[in-house]
Amino acid sequence: MNVQKLFLGLLVFVAFVLYSCSNNTDQKSAAQPGNSERKWWKEAVVYQLYPRSFKDADGDGIGDLKGIISKLDYLKSLGINVIWLNPIYQSPNDDNGYDISDYRNIMKEFGTMADFDSLLKGMHERGIKLVMDLVVNHSSDEHEWFKQSRSSRNNPYRDYYHWWNADRGKPPYRYSLFDINHDAWRYDSLSDAYYLHYFSRKQPDLNWENPKLRNEVYDIMKFWLDKGIDGFRLDAFQFVAKDTTFPVWPQGFEKNFIKYYAMGPHIHDYLQEMNKQVLSKYDAMSVAEGAGNSFEDAHDLVDADRNELNMAYAFDAVDLAKPGGYSVLKLKEIFSRWDSAFAEKGWLSIFLANHDQARLVTRFGNDSDSFRTISSKMLSTFLLTMRGTPYYYNGDELGMTNIRFDKIEDYRDMPTLNEYKHLQQTGGDIPAFMKTISFSCRDNGRTPFQWDNTTNAGFTTGTPWIKVNPNYTTINAAAQEKDSSSCLNYFRKLTQIRRDNLALVYGKYTLLDKDNPDAYAYTREWNGKKILVLLNFRSKPVTVSAGLDVSKGKLLVDNYGGLNSGSQLRPYEAVIIALQ
Length: 580
Ligand code: NOJ
What we know:
Residues 11-33 have low confidence and may be disordered. Helix content is 28%, strand content 14%. β14 and β15 form a beta hairpin. It starts with a helix and ends with a strand. The chain has four domains: 1-31; 46-137 and 209-240 and 269-405 and 445-494, Glycosidases (TIM Barrel, Alpha-Beta Barrel); 144-196, Oligo-1,6-glucosidase, Domain 2 (Oligo-1,6-glucosidase, domain 2), CATH 3.90.400.10; 508-580, Immunoglobulin-like, CATH 2.60.40. By secondary structure, the protein is α/β, with parallel strands linked by helices. Bound molecules: 1-deoxynojirimycin. 1-deoxynojirimycin binds at residues 95, 98, 135, 199, 235-236, 289, 355-356.
């Protein structure tokens, strides 16, 4: 398509930018210096799959491995090439699998090890790699290690966890993210001591200072890698290293707890040890949840020459969305700042949603009937055209929205229920809390995947563990399969475009029209290829001053299905143009 005819008005401002023509195709370019060195995990589109809510095959209302197996062709059709699966290990499910009682077994509700083997085989047959969660900041209190550890002060497993004997008085305050009382020390009368739990009291923190514990973790990692998995997402890993003298911290430290909890003593020694003993021996991808407090922390985690991890993900951008909206200028500033800090070294993760967040389109787009589809496509365009590895959360390809529960009984998320009790006990503002969680609670992102318009959205024949969003009758995969202009089919186009244009993976990122408060425009350049991305983040038409000649450009995609003859981007319009 000749972009000039249709799109002239939009980009006439123009200082004509010259770019050099090259006949090199993306695929020809071999290893590049710095962070352009080609790696499969850089070229991946990671699809995050929340197994509890994806597809239930046995009718117990809980998603399972056989359910995922039945949808492998759907997953392949998305054009994604890595799946990050949230925890599927044996667990009493205090925190939906993030409390593991046996790291080498499968959660009963999810199936068996034989199911797991079939799933992995089915994925590999379809060219999809599997990344598993590694949850080793803490275990479940029902793990055998903890049962032993708590049994007596002299038990050989005592030092697998952090204990403070009560004879020493009360330990210095530590904040718990999930506890009803916010207290991270729990008294245990069996040995008259307190144990530490940064998350819930059923998630005691493991003691990484103990080499025996570290070796147990490395053995667990090898167990799964030897089965053939392709990597790990390291849950809450920035918190594993602690100052075990437990100094007193200033009052109110919890308002800025990451500063105190993240990147404790020896964390890099542990990671280098893990890399040497495990990761370096496999072609495995590794990504840490959390990136510390500074770019220096983030680089120390991921720079290739340090032999620690491949990627980490930071929360600056995902934390921006608030019920009243967010600043697009701030969003651009954050992504641009991170990009420039990693322009030469290290590698970024790109995401705006996951299982700990409410829905992408509700938080960052506009989930009203008029704009849901178009704004959801615009956000997908953004995520798949930035430098870094995109992490894309299941259901976002359909533009699934927040369910907005109004009764506490509908919620399932343990920290949310605990905070509700905390507010009840302390006379907090419950109506305000209910309002906040209807926008931000992670249960919004965990409602069952909407497959079709049959009962329970085709997710289960039983009673779903959490309510299905009633909008499944119109927002579902079956309906979108048939509609060539659906969010689903648009997402497929995007993954294809990213596969075909390595400039979108490795290319230099340049922000255009920086001070535009409504639109996000940038180019990606690599090996003589230059791609322009224009995104309108508003529900009104917006003018972009890209300052580029697009007359010879080739339209790769437009979320309206064709370009505008006017001079502005339409509400939530997204356009990708290959300039070279
Ligand atoms: C981060 C995980 O993403 C979250 O779901 C979990 O609740 C906490 N870590 C504790 O494991």
